[in-house]
Amino acid sequence: xxxxxxxxxxxxxxxxxxxxxxxxxxxxxxxxxxxxxxxxxxxxxxxxxxxxxxxxxxxxxxxxxxxxxxxxxxxxxxxxxxxxxxxxxxxxxxxxxxxxxxxx
Length: 104
Description:
By secondary structure, the protein is of the alpha+beta class.
């Protein structure tokens, strides 16, 4: 991926996160949806939601950034990580299309 394509994809990822936040039923489905840019930011975002020992097990130092972190209300003990490759999934969430499938 060229630098210019990567920057464009990062902007699209950020726009999808903003759209997810704007969904009328956001609080019904999500505890957290946030784009993070570093390992330190990832840990800071997750610390209020999970104990330190669990974070240590989950933490992958090879994780490419930026990523989008999602904690679903239906699975509050799990973290979903979306990378730039997952932009299609994020767009489906941003339009509310994927929420119908997650409920089942």
